[in-house]
Design brief:
about 90 residues, mainly beta, three-stranded antiparallel beta sheet, 8 strands, about 10% helix
């Protein structure tokens, strides 16, 4: 692996909904229903820390298509958004 465990993400400028879903494996792929997506609301200045199982067993996405940016029953109008992602490189020993 190139990076150590742990990612810090700072979300800036516009609110958005990030969806997390389990990484598919053979056992999950055999199921007929897809794993549910878990929404997380990020406001400008939010800090998201991802490590361990959340980093390796879950994937995350921000889908800007209509109908995906819903929080509390309201559609978020996502404008320009900047994301700063911090990771630590592994030692090159």
């Amino acid at each position: 692996m190139r990076f150590e465990d742990g990612i810090a993400l700072v979300s800036l400028e516009s609110s958005c909904v990030m969806h997390f879903s389990r990484v598919e494996n053979e056992a999950v792929a055999d199921r007929k229903q897809p794993e549910p997506k878990i929404p997380v609301y990020l406001t400008p200045g939010s800090l998201l820390l991802i490590s361990g199982e959340a980093r390796y067993q879950w994937k995350h996405e921000i889908n800007r298509k209509p109908g995906f940016q819903i929080w509390d029953g309201l559609e978020i109008v996502q404008k320009r958004r900047t994301s700063i992602t911090l990771r630590r490189l592994c030692n090159s020993e």
